[in-house]
Amino acid sequence: MNLKKSLIIIFLILLVDQISKIYIKTHFILGESIDVFDWFKIHFIENDGAAWGKKLSDFLPISDSVGKLILTIFRLFAIVGIGYWLWDIIKKGSPKTLVLAVSLIFAGALGNIIDSVFYGILFDHSNGQVATMFSNEPYGNLFYGKVVDMLHFPMIDTTWPDWVPSLGGKSFRFFEPVFNIADTAISTGVGILIVFNKKAFPKPEKTEEV
């Protein structure tokens, strides 16, 4: 896969990701949810932490604002590294499977970084109101934006039977996390690397000695 095709994939993912996030942000109140199917909901939440909504301040003795800044800066360094990796494997003519996977991971990471870096100065808050884009009273500062999530697939929503030790009577939902298009791209890219590992990283053929 050449650079042009990789850039097209990245552009299309970013386009869909940002359009969906901006639409949700400017049409939904935080926490609002609509049922598309019994197993699929559009549920608007904002994530200012790491994976699964966790924050660095949950693990380190730092404030939420410092943790958020560190996380955003880390993401910026990470996207530079992923971008260099992508450029390098394309330059070396690596397998299409590897280039596709890294393109998806790069696009997804960049999509969420856009939220983290810019959304705090582009929108006002969504608490009890629909946010306005290019607001005169943004909810945050540069590098302090929150990632917009909206895709929710509660395919199983039930209660553990009473006879199950320690879990009986407690609610059980699968799939619990709420995510976005960028997250989907990252997960798909990682999944490709795991499932098609041998195609992505083929072993060099051994030359027989004469």
Strand content: 5-15%
- The chain-level mean pLDDT equals 91
Total number of helical segments? 5
DSSP helix fraction: 40-55%
Dominant shape: globular
Order of secondary-structure elements: HEEHHEEEEHH
* Rg value: 20 Å
Task: Describe the main β-sheet briefly.
Answer: 4 strands, antiparallel
How many extended strands?
Answer: 6
Structural class: alpha+beta
Q: How far apart lie the N and C ends?
A: 35 Å
Which stretches of 5+ consecutive residues score pLDDT under 50? none
Which descriptors would you attach to this protein?
single chain; 210 residues; alpha+beta; 4-stranded antiparallel sheet; two-stranded antiparallel ribbon; 6 strands; 47% helix
Written account of the structure:
47% of the residues lie in helices and 14% in strands. It has 5 helices and 6 strands, in the order αββααββββαα. The protein has one domain (3-200). A hairpin with a 2-residue loop joins strand 1 (33-37) and strand 2. The strands form 2 sheets. A 4-stranded antiparallel sheet has the order 1-2-3-6. A two-stranded antiparallel ribbon has the order 4-5. Helix 1 (3-27) runs parallel beside helix 3 and helix 2 (64-91) packs antiparallel against helix 3. It is α+β, with helices and mostly antiparallel strands.
